[in-house]
Amino acid sequence: MSQTNADAVCAWVDQVLGHHKHNSPAAQASAYAPSNIALSKYWGKRETTFNLPITGSLSISLAEHGTRTGLSVVDAPQHEVILNGAQVDASSSFAVKVCQWLDQVLPADLKLRIDTHNTLPTAAVLAASARGFAALTLATNSLMGWQLPEHQLSALARLGSGSASRSLWHGFVKWQAGEQSNGSDSVAFPLASQWPQLRIGLLTVSSQKKAVSSREGMARTITTSALYNQWPQQAESDLATIETAIIAGDFETMAKTAEHNAMSMHATMASAWPPLVYWLPESLIQMQKVWQLREQGLPIYLTMDAGPNLKLLFEAKHQADVEAAFPEVQVISPFE
Ligand code: 2P0
What we know:
By secondary structure, the protein is an alpha+beta fold.
């Protein structure tokens, strides 16, 4: 991050927190944030210091599949980061990002112990940064007594990781791209619609850490993929279609558009250089199976993120058929 950009982030944070930046912290605080899966994806930034996206995106949160983060004040020279009970090496990318975020929002002499853990083992295969920075933001808001409005918490979470802006709520959440250079309008908010029959199936192909981070993958795609030129227009159109379909309770349109959106995002990745293919052979086997089942009349769709795992979209009335076809699937009911 250049010094000028870092200064711009500090100036914005100081403006948002005002005199609350120097509040006395509580002894400890804790917060929960769910994982989220984008139905219309975030892939590409117009600015990298504030994590400002080129397009809006829309996600569904995964209920009890998330992260709980506890914070306590420590008398130590550095923050201490604990992940699932184990101390994280201060040089790891996770610890570096967490400490950088904390140093932007806390008084310089305040150091914390950050104890963060997945609430369910399956959460381990879902991207950790979104729920991690959302839980960290909520817990810090509580520890420091900031009492910030939700849109500002969303913007603060975004500084840690773009998709974290969407993980502050349950249900459907929309992150609007915004236009301001300091991101004050690049915030997420929950949609009113509920969809109790909606089911998400996690199909884990691999839980290995990916070789290329989303952050690096997006940058590579934008700079080297000619196909990316068509992405912003499709992404905005898909987002609008999905939002309308959610309001109408139109499963086929919502899920078909989500799958098409994910496949198109992966096409921009594959046409980057060096090519970026997150799929494994087993991913393709499972994808073919989804398409075959759909040909046979089962209304089941898939979405995938920057990794090899599938997320299936279907409704409760087909859960037994989906479980019979994919015995290893983990089914999530986002609204129950
Ligand atoms: C999404 N992904 O909308 C998309 C789909 C991956 C594929 O948000 O650089 O980890 O921290 O802003 O938030 C992953 O991106 O990236 C992501 P940064 P982040 O869910």
